[in-house]
């Protein structure tokens, strides 16, 4: 029972407008979306296990192992107004069966 890991994928929509609670002196994060009408979806892969007490280390394991997005980082081919060519661009990745 303690050696079971659950793996699940989930789609999230990127939000155009978002409220942030910022500490004094922190900058507001910059978000860039291509269109408000067609919102980009990002697929995330999560791996979780059962939360439990670890007597060897004396700590509590919360069960979270990994949460990672399916994205690809590749160099941009053409240059644009916002970035020069060969800049690393993050795009959504494709998951094939």
Automatic annotation (TrEMBL):
Residues 78-97 have a biased composition (Polar residues). Residues 73-97 are annotated as: Disordered. This is Uncharacterized protein. It comes from Phytophthora nicotianae P1569.
């Amino acid at each position: 029972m303690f050696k079971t890991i659950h793996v699940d994928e989930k789609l999230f929509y990127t939000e155009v407008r978002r409220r942030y609670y910022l500490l004094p002196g922190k900058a507001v994060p910059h978000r860039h979306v291509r269109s408000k009408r067609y919102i980009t979806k990002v697929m995330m892969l999560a791996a979780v296990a059962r939360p439990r007490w670890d007597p060897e280390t004396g700590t509590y394991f919360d069960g979270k192992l990994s949460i990672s997005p399916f994205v690809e980082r590749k160099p941009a081919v053409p240059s644009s107004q916002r970035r020069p060519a060969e800049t690393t661009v993050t795009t959504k990745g494709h998951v094939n069966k």
